[in-house]
Amino acid sequence: MTFSSIPDLSQARLGVLGGSGLYNMEGLENVKEIKIKTPFGEPSDLIRLGNLGGIEVVFLARHGRNHSFTPTEVPYQANIWAMKSLNVRWIISPSAVGSLQEQVRPLDIVIPDQFIDRTHQRPLTFFGGGAVAHVSMADPFCNTLSRLVAEAGESLMPEGRQLHRGGTYLAMEGPAFSTRAESNLYRSWGCTVIGMTNHTEARLAREAEIAYSSLAMSTDYDCWNSEQANVTVEQVIENLKANAKVATAIVQASAQKVGELRPKSAAHNALKDGLMTTKGKVPEKTKEKLYLLTKPYWG
How many domains, the chain? Predict the structure, then answer.
């Protein structure tokens, strides 16, 4: 993959999509809140824009600051579109997950590199309405950004907790947790963690040409581990609080690295060879709706 057609990243911003337990971004300076309307509706909450580690950061709580949206109800298209409209070219996504493997203990963190999608009520594309695009999802996370986040995070993990590089994230619809049969099925597939949000974001981020990486924070052993109590909301919330502090530190360190390196990613021109419909054949209404994403190619 060459990066010759990637636009200037010197003024680009870093996006952070805060998950369960992370509804604010500590350390942001000169914060202002922005309300954005998109062709896909309103984002989950007001956008918070501020400075962190030498780079402008755009923070959004994916479930809303009061955790008002179920995983199915999160306005994924609006959230990613809003990030793109603010010149976000990298997204770090902290989120709560259940562990499907013994070696990933509660309070560990995984930087996954693959997905399996088991959702069925999500918008998985910005396209349609007379415009078709097929982007590559062979490597759904940005390897460059994920490596940077892992390097920043390893030295910040508290004693007794581990950061795991690589693994498969099983995306389920939710909001209920898995059955024991489902949990064991996903384990048999070799999945590492299970969550409800990141896959949808990653697909849309790729179409928006934004590099995407996940901080998957293990809160429990799902329900497959008969030696552990079945997952409960109380257990998840308790571990979310413990995870939020280290996740914030990792995001802060990663922001500094992104600000220094401005890393190029194959994601930054993912639509270059993905647009299938000829511009002249796209209905004007659809063309206007997609302009933010397609302007480098359709003008």
Answer: 1
Instruction: Categorise residue 193: left if φ over 0, alpha if ψ from -120 to 50, beta otherwise.
Output: beta
Write out the DSSP string of 181-214: HHHHHHHHTT--EEESSHHHHHHHHHHTT-EEEE
Residue 6 lies in a domain: no
> Does residue 168 fall inside a structural domain?
yes
Q: Residue 73 falls within a domain, yes or no? A: yes
Active site (catalytic) residues: 220, 222
* CATH code, domain with 98: 3.40.50.1580
The percentage of the chain sitting over the pLDDT mark of 70, rounded to a whole number, equals 96
Average pLDDT of span 18-41:
91
Q: Which H or E run includes 32?
A: strand 29-34
**pTM value?**
0.94
Q: Find the domain containing 135 and state its range.
A: 13-298
| Residue 229 confidence (pLDDT) | 64
CA 172, chain centre distance (Å): 15
